[in-house]
Design a protein that fits this description.
Layout: H1 2-44, H2 52-61, H3 80-83, H4 87-94, E1 102-106, H5 114-125, E2 130-135, H6 144-154, E3 158-166, H7 167-171, E4 184-190, E5 210-214, E6 230-236, H8 238-247, E7 253-258, E8 270-271, E9 277-281, E10 283-284, E11 290-291, E12 300-301, E13 307-311, H9 318-327, E14 334-338, H10 343-348, E15 359-363, H11 367-379, E16 389-394, H12 403-418, E17 428-433, H13 444-455, E18 459-464
Parallel strand pairs: 1-2, 2-3, 3-4, 4-5, 5-6, 6-7, 7-9, 8-12, 9-13, 13-14, 14-15, 15-16, 16-17, 17-18
Antiparallel strand pairs: 10-11
Helix pairs in contact: 5-6, 11-12, 12-13
Length: about 475
C-alpha cells in the first residue's frame, strides 16, 4: 500500500510544479500582453502617449466658448464629454480643476439631482475661481437644503455669479455667506411674490465691482454701492435709474433699458461726473412690455462722458436725445447708434462736429442718412474731423441703405476726404452685412479703392457679419 501512496504523492507534486510553471508563464504572457497593448494603443491613439499636462490643456480648449442654452450640464460637451471617453482621460479630467470652474445649471431640469450635481461639480473645481450660473426655483428641490449648503460652502471661491431665481430663493441665502471673491453679480428675480425685507446676502462682497439687476429695484438689495464701477439695470423706470446713479458715486460705466414711466416725479436734471460710458438698450419685461425709451436723457447729464451707445431705443425720443446733447458739452470720443430713426438730428448733433470723436458705429442706416453722411464726410473738413474708426452694419430693408450701395458711397467719400485738410485720417473702415439669402457684391471700382487703401495700411473689412465673406480678399466677387 505504501508504494502506491508514494507514487500518488510523486504525481501530485509533479503536477503542482507543472501548474506553477504554467501559471508563471501565463503571468509573464499577460504582462507582456499589457505592455504590447499599451504600445499598440499609443500607435493607434497617439493622444494617449501625450503627457497629462498637455492633455489637460487640450481639454481646457474644448470648453464651450458660449452658453449652451438653458442648461450647461451637457454630456456632448466638455468637460463631461472628455471625462467619458476612457479611464485615462477621466483621471486627467477629474484632476484638472479649471475644467469644472464654470457651473451652469437649471435646477428645474435637474430637479432630482441638482444638489448632487452642484456638489460634485464644484468639488472637482477645488480652489479654482468659480463662475456660477443658476436658473429655476431652488426651494422646490427635494434636497434644497443641501443645494444651499453647497452654495454656502463654495461661495468664498465664486468670482462671478448669475442667478435667475424666485424671490424666496434669494431670501433663503444665508445672511453670513462669504462672497469675498465675488466681482460680477447678475440677478434676475422671477416675481412670484412681493419682496420681503431688503436682501443682505451680498452686502459684504467687498470685491464687487460690476452688477446687473433685472427688474429689481436697488431699494430691495443691500450692496457695497460706494465701490461699484459698472452697473446695468434692465427694465427700469426713470426714478429707479436716478436712484441707482445717486447710490454709486464711483460709477464709470452704466447701461439702462428704460420704461417711459414715472418721469413726472423727477425734479430737474441729475448730474453724475464719474460716468465715462453710458448705454441705452432695449429689453423685454416678464409681462411682455418693451423697455426701449430714451426719455431718461431729459433728466440726466454726464459732464465727462466719453462713450455713448443707443441700442434699439424708440425713435420717438429724438427730442430727448437733442436735449441731452444740448446740455452736454464734453466732447465724445465714441458714438454707437443701432438704429435710431432720427437722421437729421444725428447729422446736426454736436458730437459729429467735434474733433474729439474718434469712433463712430451706425447700424442699419437709412438711405437718406447714408447720402447726407457721406456727402458731409467727403466735403466738410470740420465734419467728424478726428474720426479714425468708422463702422456700418447693413441689412436688406426697403428704407435702408443696401450694403453694396453704402460701400460705393464710402469709397468715393473717403477718397475725397483724403484730399481735404484734416487733422486726422481714417484708419479703420468696416462695412458688415447681416447674412441673408442674397448678398450683392459691391461695385468693382469701390473694391479697387478699398484694396488700395488696405495695401497702404488701412484696416478694411467689407463683407458679412459672420466673417466668412470678406470681399477685399475675394477678387472674383465684383460687379461693374
Amino acid at each position: 500500500m505504501l508504494p502506491v501512496n508514494a507514487t500518488l504523492r510523486s504525481q501530485v507534486s509533479r503536477l503542482a510544479l507543472e501548474i506553477h510553471a504554467l501559471q508563471t508563464n501565463l503571468a509573464e504572457m499577460q504582462a507582456e500582453l499589457v505592455r504590447l497593448q499599451h504600445q499598440l494603443d499609443a500607435v493607434t491613439y497617439p493622444v494617449l502617449s501625450l503627457p497629462p499636462e498637455i492633455v489637460s490643456g487640450i481639454f481646457l480648449h474644448c470648453l464651450p466658448a458660449e452658453a449652451l442654452g438653458t442648461d450647461g450640464i451637457d454630456n456632448t460637451e466638455a468637460p463631461l464629454l472628455v471625462s467619458h471617453v476612457c479611464s485615462q482621460w477621466r483621471r486627467i479630467a477629474l484632476s484638472t480643476p479649471a475644467l469644472w470652474a464654470n457651473l451652469d445649471i437649471d435646477v428645474s431640469c435637474r430637479n432630482l439631482y441638482a444638489a448632487e450635481i452642484a456638489k460634485a461639480w464644484l468639488g472637482r473645481a477645488r480652489s479654482s475661481p468659480l463662475s456660477v450660473k443658476i436658473q429655476g426655483q431652488i426651494t422646490e428641490l427635494g434636497d434644497s437644503a443641501q443645494f444651499f449648503e453647497t452654495l454656502r460652502r463654495h461661495a468664498p471661491g465664486i468670482k462671478s455669479l448669475e442667478i435667475s431665481v424666485y424671490v424666496d430663493d434669494l431670501a433663503r441665502l444665508p445672511q453670513d455667506i462669504d462672497f469675498s471673491l465675488l466681482r460680477d453679480l447678475n440677478i434676475r428675480l422671477i416675481h412670484d411674490d412681493e419682496f420681503p425685507d431688503v436682501f443682505e446676502a451680498f452686502s459684504g462682497a467687498q470685491a464687487l465691482s460690476q452688477i446687473v439687476l433685472n427688474q429689481m429695484s436697488p431699494s430691495f438689495i443691500a450692496l457695497p454701492w460706494q465701490q461699484l464701477q459698472k452697473f446695468t439695470g434692465k427694465s427700469y423706470t426713470i426714478p429707479q435709474c436716478i436712484e441707482v446713479l445717486s447710490l454709486m458715486p464711483n460709477l464709470t460705466e452704466c447701461a439702462f433699458s428704460v420704461f417711459s414711466l414715472g418721469s413726472l416725479a423727477i425734479p430737474g436734471v441729475f448730474s453724475h461726473s464719474g460716468i465715462r460710458t453710458f448705454t441705452l438698450f432695449r429689453s423685454s419685461s416678464d409681462w411682455g412690455q418693451e423697455a426701449d425709451s430714451a426719455e431718461i436723457l431729459e433728466f440726466v447729464t454726464f459732464p465727462n462722458l466719453e462713450s455713448f451707445e443707443l441700442l434699439d431705443v424708440d425713435s420717438k425720443d429724438g427730442e430727448a436725445l437733442d436735449s441731452f446733447f444740448q446740455r452736454y458739452r464734453q466732447p465724445l470720443k465714441r458714438l454707437i447708434i443701432r438704429p435710431l430713426d432720427a437722421t437729421q438730428l444725428v447729422m446736426t448733433s454736436e458730437p459729429l462736429w467735434q474733433p474729439q470723436l474718434t469712433e463712430l458705429e451706425i447700424w442699419y442706416p437709412e438711405t437718406l442718412f447714408a447720402r447726407i453722411f457721406f456727402e458731409n464726410l467727403g466735403e466738410q473738413p470740420d465734419y467728424v474731423s478726428g474720426l479714425q474708426k468708422l463702422t456700418f452694419y447693413c441689412r436688406r430693408d426697403p428704407s435702408e441703405e443696401r450694403h453694396e450701395e453704402l460701400v460705393a458711397r464710402a469709397a468715393e467719400a473717403i477718397v475725397s476726404r483724403g484730399k481735404l485738410e484734416s487733422e486726422a485720417q481714417l484708419r479703420v473702415f468696416h462695412a458688415f452685412s447681416i447674412p441673408s439669402n442674397y448678398l450683392a457684391p459691391p461695385p468693382r471700382s469701390a473694391l479697387a479703392t478699398f484694396r488700395r487703401l488696405a495695401e497702404e495700411g488701412m484696416d478694411i473689412y467689407i463683407g458679412t457679419e459672420d466673417g466668412r465673406n470678406n470681399y477685399i480678399n475675394m477678387k472674383d466677387y465684383t460687379q461693374e
